[in-house]
Design goal:
By secondary structure, the chain is mainly α. The protein is built from 16 helices and no strands. Helix 3 runs antiparallel to helix 6 and helix 12 packs across helix 14. About 45% of the residues are buried.
Amino acid sequence: MRWWSVANFVSNAGTWMQLTVQNLLVLQITGSAAATGLSMSVQAAPALLISVFGGAAVDRWPRKLTAAVSQALLGAVAFATALLVALDRLDVTTLMALAAVTGVIATVDGPACSLLGNDLVPPEDVPSAIGVGALVHQAGRLTGAALAGVAVGFLGTAAAYAANGLSFLFVASVVPFLRPARGAAGHTGKAARRERADSLSVREGLAFFARRPRLLALAGVTGISAVFGRNYQLTLAVLVTGPLAGGAGSFGTVSTVLAAGGIVGAVLGARLRRPSVRVVGALAAAGGLLQVVAGLSPSLAVLLVMVLPMAVVESVSDTAGTSVLQTDPPAHLRGRVLGVWGSIGTVWGLGGPPALGLLMELAGARGALVAGGLIIAASITTGHLLHGRRSKEPVALRAAGDTGTPARVALGTAA
C-alpha cells in the first residue's frame, strides 16, 4: 500500500502538471475559448457513453494487468502529445483525437486503479485506504500545479506532457510488484472470478445499481451537491473578483485555503470506519449551509474563515461516498458499479457548471451561493424525512394459512 500510494502521488502530480498547461496549449493552438471547452468535453464524452463497458472489462480481466496496461497506454498518449508539441505538429484535429483516446482509456483505468488499491488492504481497512487515496490526490494536485509553472518556464509545454508520461510508466512498473492482502475482496481464484463475471452482463450490472436504494440515494445526494455546490473555482472566483473587489492574488489565496482544507478533510476521512449514505448526506447538507454563510461574507477575511470548513466537509463527504460506492456492491460487480457512476458523474460534470453559470447570471455570485446552498440542504433534509417516514410504515405479514405462503418465506421477504 505504501508503494501504491507513492506511485499514485507521482501519477497525480504528473496529471495535474498536464492539466495545468493543457488549456493554455489549446488556447495557444486555436486562440478560441470555445475550442478549449470542446477539448474538455471530447475527453469527458467517452466516460458518458462507455464507462459501463469499461467497468465490465475491469470485472472480467485480471485487475493488476488491467491497471498496468491502461497506465502504460496513457503514458504512450502523453509521450505522443509531448513529441507533437515539441515538433510543433499538433493541430486541432489531432488534439481532439488524443483527448478522445485518453477518455476511452480512462474508462478502464479509473475503476481498475481504484479497486486495485482496495485489494492491497484487508476489507475492514478499505475506508482508510480510500481516505489515503484522497489525501494522495490532494497532495499530488498541489505539487503538480506548482511544478507545472517551473517545467513550462524552464523546459516548455512539452515537458509537462513528458513528465506526465513518465509518471504513468512509473505506476505501470510498480503494479506487478503489488501483493493483494489476504482476504481482500478482489483476491480470489481465477476460476471463481471468471465464473462470477460471466454470470452477470453489463445490463444486469445496470439493473443492480437501479435496484439498490443506497446507491440511488448516494447518487441523488452527490448529484445535487455537484450541481448547486462544489464548483467553487467558478462561484468563488466570481464572488472574490466581483462583490468582494479582490484580484487574482486574492482568489489564489482562496484556492490555497480550499486545497489545504481538502488535505485536512482527506486525513479525517481516512479515519472513517463505517461510512454510510446518511453520513454523506449530513456532511453535504452541512456543506450547503456553510456555502450560504460564505455567500453572505462581507469581506475576504470572513470568506477565508468559511472556505476552510467548506473544503474539509466536502473532502470528508467525498471520501465517505467513495467508500460506500466501492464497498456496497458485491466484489464481482464493483467495476460495473464504478462504470455506471462514471457515466452519472460525467453528466454532473458537464451540466453542473453551465447550470450554475446561468444561476449566477440571474442571481449574482452571492445569490447563486446562497440559493444553491439552501437547495442542497433542503433537498437532503426532505429526502431524509421522507425516507424516515417510509421506513416507519408497518409491514403486514400474512399467516401461513392465508395464502399458502409459508410464514418463514414471508418473514424473510419482509426482512
